Amino acid sequence: MKYIISWVLRFIPRKFIQLFAHRLIKIYSIFLTGNKVYCPVCDHSFRHFLPYGRLTPRENALCPSCLSLERHRLMYLYLKNETSFFTEKPKLLHIAPEYCFIERFEKHLGDQYITADIESPLAKVKMDLHDIPFEDNTFDAVFCNHVLEHVKDDVRCMQEIRRVLKPTGFALCQSPQRYDLATTYEDASITDPREREIHFLQDDHLRIYGRDYGTQLEKSGFTVEPVNLIEKLGLKESQRMALPLEEIIYVCRK
Ligand SMILES: [Zn+2]
């Protein structure tokens, strides 16, 4: 299974995966009935999660019911436990919307919920993050996860997110990060796709952020609060929900 998933991620265009993969995986989920792991996003338990990843697939990562990964479950827990997201109805701009969240957010927020992306078939508004087509101070929340490592000018995109955020709002802009790197790493001279994958995790990543990611976000004017929810939840809960081994949530405010 792990090699099939790795092959699909490498060779099938992402938009086809987003449109069709969940149907096949849902069918497979009947073979994973059990109680060892729990997904807080869809409220289902399984024997284990599915493996996921391109280079070396990670065991126990993908929820077969809602397709959440470790980082999605962590973000969902942050919203549920640490914010008023689910008790109020914030106006949300969700950039590059993750499949596991769309239906849930839509049900909760109705027309307060706007999905946007430059190419994702899951998004309703087509837009370039360098030039967001909304007025200043429009949204109570902006989510833009695993996007900034792909864009040409990441600081400009962060500034755009900050611009459309209300002064009372917050943004979550998580990106792949290597905690063993002190500073963010870019090298345009590496052009071989395989080499780029080794250096930047994916060949279409323009950079890999280091431990300075919070400082990078602050370059756009954001005030950034790092939250270590994994530590707060403890090892047992983190393992039961297969959360990331290490991930700081950077809560960005105006
Ligand atoms: Zn799930």
UniProtKB/TrEMBL annotation:
Alphabetically list the UniProt keywords: Methyltransferase, Transferase
Q: Name one Pfam family in it.
A: Methyltransf_11
Domain of life according to the entry: Bacteria
Query: Which chain regions cross the lipid bilayer?
Result: none
**Keyword Methyltransferase carried by entry:** yes
A GO BP term here is:
methylation
Which part of the chain is the Methyltransferase type domain?
Answer: 123-172
InterPro entries, from UniProt?
Erg6_SMT_methyltransf (IPR050447), Methyltransf_11 (IPR013216), SAM-dependent_MTases_sf (IPR029063)
The molecular function GO annotations come to:
S-adenosylmethionine-dependent methyltransferase activity
Cited PANTHER family: GERANYL DIPHOSPHATE 2-C-METHYLTRANSFERASE (PTHR44068:SF11), ZGC:194242 (PTHR44068)
**Entry protein name:** Class I SAM-dependent methyltransferase
Taxonomic lineage is: Bacteria, Pseudomonadati, Bacteroidota, Cytophagia, Cytophagales
